[in-house]
Amino acid sequence: MIERNIEIIKLLSDLGANPKKIGAALGPQAFLDYDKDRLGLFTGIPVHTIEQTTKRDSYDELIDNCKFIDAIYSHLNTSTEKILETLRFNKFPFIFSGDHSNASAAIAAIRANYPKAKIGVIWIDAHADLHTPYTTPSGNMHGMPVAMSIAEDNKNQLKHQLIGSGLDYWEKIKDLGVQGKGNISFQDIMFIDIRNLEPEEWDLIHKNRVLYTTPETRKEQGIEHVIQLTKTFSASFDYIYVSFDIDSLDESLVPGTGTRVENGLSLKEAGQLLHHLYQLPNLAAFEITEINPILDIDNTTLKNVYEVIKDMARVS
Ligand SMILES: [Mn+2]
What we know:
Elements: E1 6-12, H1 27-36, E2 47-51, H2 69-88, E3 92-97, H3 103-113, E4 119-124, H4 145-150, H5 164-174, E5 189-192, H6 199-207, E6 211-212, H7 215-221, H8 223-235, E7 239-245, H9 267-278, E8 283-289, H10 300-313
Parallel strand pairs: 1-2, 1-3, 3-8, 4-5, 4-7, 5-6, 7-8
Helix pairs in contact: 2-3, 2-5, 7-8, 8-9, 9-10
The structure holds manganese (II) ion (MN).
Manganese (II) ion is lined by residues 100, 125, 127, 129, 245.
């Protein structure tokens, strides 16, 4: 961890997650506490914390396709400012976030700091998080950060209408970072190990020829091949953002996350991949997300994710 001039940013919102599985907002501190009792990889590093200020009971039933969007917008706005400030001081934001909707703040901040740069995103996740309020099956906004960052509505696949304040906030969320267009485009993202997507998301991926790998890619050609693909991808960008959703790991390894999916990365594969990505000279920020201590069983998730981060941080 010492190789980069990092600052820890804790984004403590889990309002984007399934309201029946709350607890991801506790993940960042749980991980840092776990580390403190072990190697202390993050000891002594400055920490910034963005709290979730809205309570869930203030949920507005009227915006069912984008639950808590008002509160999430406000949280993303504050988070974007904080990450931007860190980047302006030439620090490396090492982000621990509650649910994955927080990622759009990091992408917005990197874009705001480098308005003209080529910014690439490597999204390691069982899901593509490409839903929108128009297509979502759940209304949970942690399934939407990639669409937010691309400013994509996917109205071709429209399942619900969006009106009133929900629409106002969705427009504002798409406008974080740069105004009037996406912070990234479909060509600026690469998905790793996606395996649980709805047809509306696959439609966007295929139509826009988005780069991705699945568990089959990894199993047939090895994690080294996946790493090679990320190498080629990242070489054509000025800055890279890596977002690591722990549900990319196999469901057996992470009881403490909200949306577990079978057929995922092993600890060794994830460690190898992240170790490579963390060395990228153009890496601008890193995020780890969706650790939910309330769902965890005997710290299994913390222990396993810690193995991965240790591997990532190892001096090669
Ligand atoms: Mn995700």
